[in-house]
Amino acid sequence: MNNASEPVDAEQPANVLTPTNGRINQEKAQSANGSSWASEEDIDTFDQFVRRFWKGEISPDEFKRFRLQNGIYGQRQEGEQMFRIKIPWGGLSAAQLELLAELAAKAPNGVAHVTTRQNIQLHFIKLEQVTGLMRSLASVGLTTREACGNTVRNVTVGHCAGVCSQELFDVTPYAETIARFLLRNPMNQNLPRKFKISFSGCPDDLGLSPMQDIGVRAALRSAGGKEERGFQLYVGGGLGPVPRLAELLEEFTPEDRLLPTVAAIVRVFDRVGNRDDRHKARMKFVLNKLGIEAFRTLVFQERTGLESTMAGQFPPLAVWEEVPFHHASPGSTGAPVEPDDSAYRRWRTTNVLQQKQPGYAMVCIRLELGDITSAQLRALAFAAREFGDGTVRSTNQQNFALRWIPSWRLPALYRVLSAVGLAAPSAERLADVTACPGADTCQLGITSSRGLGAALGALCDDELKDLADETGIRIKISACPNSCGQHHLADIGLYGGAKKFNGQQVPTYEMLLGARLTPGQASYAKPVARIPAKNVPGAVEAVLQLYQKERQGGESFTSFLDRCGLESVKTVLAPFTELPPASEAPDQYLDYNAEEAFSIHVGPGECAS
User: Which residues, including other chains, have CB under 8 Å from residue 447's CB and lie 6 or more apart?
Assistant: First the structure.
């Protein structure tokens, strides 16, 4: 491992992979084993299927299944597609960002969207564009394969992995191995429903293990006088209309048994999952039916069989550690003076975290509702090369993170980011609202979650600016009960619906409060009120003003709710649950960004939870 204080040639790469147990040594700009995620054969096959579909040789249902398996999802607008790019563990190189900038420029809105599963989406794409976009992605090693459909979706990782001061070890290499093993694997092509896996290495559990089909959390134990790496595996979690918390499958799974254990879980789900009722096909329903003990028995039996029949066929783990390759300190020139700028100081307080590697920082890039323009992607690629290690991580909070930034270069980085609108403060704090795409594009969306998200962001910047930087409060919005916006995980969660007021249909949101993600004490947010959409900002403001008024000392929002109880909050919310006649307040009967009377327009969901 190179010492961060040693001077090195500035022309050398910013960061390298250093092997653990001598197993790998490659440049960080490549994926962990240097190979691409893409397949030309996939793209050729997709192109052939499209042509056969246009000729009427393939039925719409058959083509839909194939299209989803390849990451192409139909929007509510006829003929428009959502193009989902799979970003395993959220890792992207500067070259990949530049290619994504080119693709975003080809989308009608000029925007790429970061999802809550660390993927990148382009919207309003024509089917005839897709093959060309796939070939462009393949040139930088990216793919859309299995980003949608009844498959194991993107394997996610908390974005602080490898640099977090509290982590037991970097879980990224293990996620890489799992993702590569399952990609295009026959066992993963026709599951009963979609399947989600995440990894966390630190106590904050940024991988959000309680909501996953498999939540993998780093663990250590002593064996024979040596420290042994392993994992706690949680199974059967999920959100949607029937949320369920994952349960502990195994207290300690040694690292060399992780892959066969994950494979066993997937195979058991494939065998016993409900294929007759799509609404009960997720793995959480398998756990509800069998119970954790019976499920554990099936998995362990399957694992034993796999370890016997596939001995030597599982790919080896290639474990690495990230090591800086440039100088972390300014050397003889001395540390630059921090700018006397209140905006910079706020950004540094809210968006910058010191890494476990002395002299380096991780910088969180707050994106409004997960959107980033083509020009901003290019600027981010420049910043990654110029100031960091040439890479970024997408986050499951719809943001990006730059890592390996020498602390003395933060003022210069801020100037670059500020020039392109990427230096907004309050990253992953109250003002940083999460929202699904909603009724703007999704066939299942009931309400304009993005419209409400923008309104709540403005509320935090104005009326609630004293609370905007709070770390213990997050707002998350979904446009329907399916929880793509992860409203069940929020301190203040909202999901869209509809209700008649004075004989007229009105967009509404169910407000949920008080999610707790502390490992071993996890609980989802609880519903407290159903509120007309245009009343939601006032309702959120009332709840947070109550918190400001009644909190004791540095009491967190969750602790405040525990102490005061939800009934006190319901009392404050009561005035916001009704509407005056439409003749007195016609705008309150409309959805955000709408001029016509509200009505429910939902189509056949291709990606329902």
Answer: 438, 439, 479, 480, 496, 497, 498, 507, 508, 509, 533, 591, 592
Closest CA to 393 of 203, 161, 102: 161
Q: How far is CA 467 from CA 41, 473, 525, in A?
A: 52, 9, 20
Reported as a single tens digit per residue, the pLDDT across 451-461 is 999 999 999 99
- Which neighbouring-strand residues pair with 80? 126
| Separation between Cα atoms, residue 185 and residue 155, nearest integer Å | 14
Short-list 327, 325, 328, 400, CA closest to 360: 328
pLDDT band at 4 (very low <50, low <70, confident <90, very high): very low
Q: Tokens representing 412?
A: 């210069």
Tell me the pTM.
0.93
State how far the Cα of 286 lies from the Cα of 289, in Å rounded to an integer.
Answer: 5
Q: CA-to-CA distance for 412 and 405, rounded, in angstroms?
A: 11
- What domains can you pick out in the chain, each with its CATH number? 19-36+153-309 (3.30.413.10), 438-589 (3.30.413.10)
Tell me how far CA of residue 161 lies from CA of 284, 405, 579, in angstroms: 27, 15, 47
At 288, is the secondary structure helix, strand, or coil? helix
Residues 6+ apart with CB under 8 A from 480: 442, 444, 445, 446, 447, 495, 496, 497, 602
Q: Convert the pLDDT of each residue in 76-87 to its tens digit.
A: 999 999 999 999
- Pick from 452, 494, 431: nearest CA to 485: 494
- Beta-ladder partners of 250: 233
89: left (phi over 0), alpha (psi -120 to 50) or beta: left
Structure tokens at 358: 């002395």
pLDDT in tens, 344-379: 999 999 999 999 999 999 999 999 999 999 999 999
Q: How confident is the prediction for the chain on average, in pLDDT?
A: 91
Alpha-carbon distance 154 to 16, whole Å? 25
* H or E stretch covering 424: none
